[in-house]
Design a protein that fits this description.
2 helices, globular, YbhB_YbcL/LppC-like, protein kinase inhibitor activity, Phosphatidylethanolamine-binding Protein, PEBP-like_sf, 6% helix, mainly beta, three-stranded antiparallel β-sheet, six-stranded antiparallel β-sheet, 207 residues
């Protein structure tokens, strides 16, 4: 099975058009175009009944005390955790492409609703938790929301775009389900999977 993410090559920087946050010399970060990239896949195995698309960043600081704080840095030695940026499940077996901008086109304060979307069923991404304390932004963030790593992080962040071919038509998930729920529901149902990884940073010393 093969996945193609248009505009993103393995191990190369992700274009700013797909980012939630872009570099700003004045304010460190400003909102980006936040469009989902076009994702397509091929060579799914016989017996595939649905697909799931997952995008996550495994390089997110497990402790956020120093994140985006003036005069501080997020140490490269800090333990890291997964931050989910995109969860789409129950994509019909007849679908093999998600067009650019279909699931996200711009930063929407307070997010997008979970549940059935333009293609498949949306789970909630980790911005839901990350922005919960921000009165201007708090809400339910479902579907795609792109990279916006801490601007003072010492490490480059990696973003894994994954597609899974599944042997069930539905994972049976509803409501505001998250990335761990998707992983648990897929267990034992994956016929094939494919991944491409891009990188992104807002740290001017790493750009």
């Amino acid at each position: 099975m093969k996945i193609t993410v248009s505009g993103i090559s393995e191990g190369q920087p992700i274009p700013e058009s797909f980012a939630f946050g872009v570099f700003s010399a004045e304010d460190h970060m400003s909102f980006g175009p936040n469009r989902n990239p076009e994702v397509s896949w091929e060579d799914a195995p016989a017996g595939t009944k649905s697909f799931a698309v997952v995008m996550f960043d495994p390089d997110v600081p497990s402790v956020a005390d120093d994140v985006n704080q003036e005069g501080k840095t997020v140490s490269k030695d800090l333990p890291r955790a997964d931050f989910f940026h995109w969860l789409l499940v129950d994509i019909p077996a007849s679908v093999s492409r998600i067009p650019e901008g279909e699931d996200s086109d711009g930063v929407l304060p307070k997010g997008k609703p979970a549940g059935p979307g333009p293609i498949g069923v949306r789970g909630i991404n980790t911005y839901t938790q990350f922005l919960a304390g921000n009165p201007d932004m708090a809400g339910t963030y479902a579907g795609y929301d792109g990279p916006c790593p801490p601007w003072n992080d010492e490490i480059l962040h990696h973003y894994h775009f994954e597609v899974y071919a599944l042997d069930v038509e539905t994972l049976g998930l509803s409501g505001e389900f998250d990335g761990e729920a998707v992983r648990e529901a897929m267990a034992g149902h994956v016929l094939a999977q494919a991944r491409v990884t891009g990188t992104y940073t807002l740290n001017p010393d790493l750009r």
